[in-house]
Design a protein that fits this description.
The structure holds two protein chains of two kinds.
Chain A: H1 2-6, E1 13-14, H2 17-26, E2 29-32, E3 39-40, E4 43-44, H3 48-57, E5 61-66, H4 73-82, E6 93-95, H5 96-107, E7 113-117, H6 120-128, E8 133-134, E9 153-158, H7 166-175, E10 182-185, E11 191-193, E12 199-201, H8 203-214, E13 219-220, H9 227-235, E14 243-247, H10 250-260, E15 263-267, H11 274-282, E16 295-297, H12 304-307
Parallel strand pairs in A: 1-16, 2-5, 2-14, 5-6, 7-8, 7-9, 9-10, 10-13, 14-15, 15-16
Antiparallel strand pairs in A: 3-4, 11-12
Chain B: E1 7-11, E2 17-18, E3 21-22, H1 26-35, E4 39-43, H2 51-60, E5 70-71, H3 73-83, E6 90-94, H4 97-105, E7 110-111, H5 122-126, E8 134-139, H6 147-157, E9 163-166, E10 172-174, E11 180-182, H7 184-195, E12 200-201, H8 208-217, E13 224-228, H9 231-241, E14 244-248, H10 255-264, H11 267-270, E15 276-278, H12 285-289
Parallel strand pairs in B: 1-4, 1-13, 4-5, 6-7, 6-8, 8-9, 9-12, 13-14, 14-15
Antiparallel strand pairs in B: 2-3, 10-11
Helix pairs in contact in B: 3-4, 6-7
The chains are: A alpha/beta, B alpha/beta.
InterPro entries (chain A): HAD-like_sf, HAD-SF_hydro_IIA, HAD_sf, PGP_euk
Active site (chain A): 33 (nucleophile), 35 (proton donor)
Family (chain A): Belongs to the HAD-like hydrolase superfamily.
Chain lengths: 309, 290
């Protein structure tokens, strides 16, 4: 398996039964995306809670790596519990909002304030990390002609913001005129699916608008950037060769796995289709190989027979 | 040079005004060009004013101009939708009141203009009621742009038969008073990212703006001069349409930029080299007065 990866060729193999059992024995660390992998909205995927608790019971390390920045981690713990994943602790959850706060505090060591375009998830994580921030204090009649700018803003952080306005875009681009002001994005996902398959605009739309306004590229915290794996590695002793990244979005989860040197598995309960994975595999552009998973399952519930012994 | 030209197409921002300040000498230049029998047209990628609003602004600054001389992006977009897209049905508009007015003038109905704050939860947003008569999403400059508008545009564009048209891709919009804010290009990029597709754009360097003027007034491109301040959008348009091009240095581009394009040897970039350049449009005065 490692040899195949070294040549840039990914199997994209659908596996089951004893193949899954062998894979579970070979790996100690399981990284799961959430939306479309273990749940859809407020509904757990059938069998997923049992898969997670079985992995934990068998002594495996389980982490959840999600680009969804709309909730603080303590809120996520409640959701896990509500949906039947009763063994999950806050320390196992790595969201792009949490990791953005970690980046600002521990890597950038930002001195000064952060201008935030984002919701409760991002703000709460910044608060918990002790990082001062501004955003959303616009007077209701504030316009692009008379808005006040805060002093001492040393970073702009863009995440999912359903209260996004043109005024926020204008203010953020003012702050980013200073080349020493950092430009961070929680993630660049262009859209997110809801439970019924309808989609909503994602953080990627807001980030791209700001990139055009400023002529600058955002530093991306979430998948496919490898930073969230670095966060996990800084808190736990993780060996990439012992990891399996399980996700549903080729351009986010599989690329993330490839960027971090992890084996990858696509589950078909979410966004990406087998057909697309195969098209990437068969394409002439070598860059597309990074989107191709090593393994494919119809649902992570396919792990369950492997635990019966 | 002026003798070989009958028609002059003048860009506004950075050529004859900056914000609400006329570039010194420019009203005299324009008025003398007209007196000398040249036709003068005012062309701009800015979609926030109607032809009449621009004519009023021009008059206030001392320019001799009528509505018919003005080709602003609100007007040109309405013409594009009518003549090129041959639009049937309604438009979901992310844009200004000026755009709404120009669309209505050509008989195109729109929905969406004005503030659109968010309410409800995610399920509500994904299920916003859609007007079944909407066949195109049009994106221009909109100071009321919001997540909710982005969402509505996405819901319409989920239908692959719904068209996406952008007025222009400029990254910044100069305001009265000299400030600048993010331009239509930013708003358009947000919509294109959500819908994962590219818009058709009306404004420069697309040659529709020139075609619009030329077809209404029967212009001979060989006898046209474009006076502009940007190499990448404006001069390129001029080259592509076979017009003479004059760069003024009171706006965005510099001589160094032009020389860099010329020395590049790259055919695309050589198209961005102007035929002539002046420090400011006022330099044309002696030739016109003499």
């Amino acid at each position: 398996m490692a040899g195949a990866r070294a040549f840039g060729f990914k199997g994209c193999r659908k596996i089951g039964g004893s193949q899954i059992r062998n894979l579970l024995n070979a790996k100690d660390f399981f990284l799961f995306d959430c939306d479309g992998v273990i749940w859809h909205g407020e509904k757990a995927i059938i069998g997923a809670p049992k898969v997670v608790s079985s992995l934990i019971k068998h002594g495996k390390n389980v982490f959840f790596v999600t680009n969804n920045c709309t909730r603080p981690r303590e809120n996520y713990v409640n959701k896990f519990y509500r949906l039947g994943f009763t063994d999950v602790m806050q320390e196992q959850i790595f969201s792009s909002s949490y990791c953005s706060a970690l980046y600002l505090r521990d890597v950038a060591k930002v001195q000064g304030k952060v201008y935030v375009i984002g919701g409760e998830g991002v703000r709460n994580e910044l608060l918990q990390a002790g990082i001062p921030f501004v955003g959303d204090e616009d007077a209701p009649d504030g316009t692009i002609f008379n808005c006040a700018l805060a002093s001492d803003v040393k970073a702009v952080l863009v995440g999912h913001d359903d209260k996004f306005t043109f005024l926020k875009l204008a203010k953020a681009s003012c702050y980013l005129r200073d080349p020493d002001c950092l430009f961070l994005a929680t993630d660049v996902d262009p859209w997110h699916p809801l439970q019924d398959g309808r989609i909503l605009p994602g953080s990627g739309c807001l980030t791209s608008a700001l990139e055009v306004a400023t002529g600058r590229k955002a530093m991306v915290i979430g998948k496919p950037s490898p930073f969230m794996f670095e966060c996990i590695s800084s808190q736990f002793r993780v060996d990439p060769a012992q990891c399996l990244m399980v996700g549903d979005r080729l351009e986010t989860d599989m690329l993330f796995g490839a960027n971090c040197g992890l084996d990858t598995m696509l589950t078909l309960t979410g966004i990406s289709q087998m057909k697309t994975a195969q098209e990437y595999r068969d394409s002439d552009h070598s860059a597309n190989q990074s989107f191709v998973p090593d393994y494919v399952v119809d649902t992570i519930a396919d792990f369950l027979p492997a635990f019966e012994d | 040079m002026l003798d070989s030209v009958d028609n002059v197409l003048i860009d506004c921002d950075g050529v004859i005004w900056r914000g609400d300040q006329a570039i010194p000498g420019s009203p005299d230049v324009i008025n003398l060009l007209k007196k000398n029998g040249k036709k003068v047209f005012f062309v701009t990628n800015n979609s926030t004013k109607t032809r009449k609003m621009y004519a009023d602004k021009l008059a206030l600054m001392g320019f001799n101009a009528t509505d018919d001389d003005v080709f602003g992006m609100a007007y040109c977009s309405a013409m594009y939708l009518k003549k090129v897209s041959k639009l049937q049905g309604k438009v979901y508009l992310i844009g200004s009141n000026a755009m709404r007015q120009e669309l209505e003038k050509v008989g195109i109905q729109q929905t969406g203009v004005g503030p659109d704050p968010i309410s409800g939860v995610q399920m509500d947003w994904a299920n916003v009621p859609l007007d079944p008569e909407v066949k195109t999403v049009v994106v221009g400059f909109d100071e009321h742009f919001s997540y909710m508008k982005l969402n509505r545009a996405l819901q319409y564009l989920n239908n692959p038969d719904c068209l996406l048209v952008g007025t222009n891709t400029d990254t910044r919009l100069p305001l009265e008073g000299g400030k600048a804010v993010p331009g239509t290009g930013c708003i358009l990029k947000a919509v294109e990212t959500a819908a994962q597709r590219q818009a058709q754009t009306v404004g420069k360097p697309n040659h529709f703006t020139y075609d619009c003027v030329a077809s209404q007034f029967g212009l001979d491109s060989a006898r046209c001069l474009m006076v502009v301040d940007r190499l990448d959008t404006d001069i390129l348009l001029g080259s592509n349409c076979g017009l003479k091009t004059l760069l003024t240095l009171t706006g965005v581009s510099t001589v160094a930029d032009a020389e860099a394009h010329q020395e590049s040897g790259c055919p695309e970039r050589v198209g961005m080299v102007p035929d002539y350049y002046v420090e400011s449009i006022a330099e044309l005065l002696p030739a016109l007065q003499g």
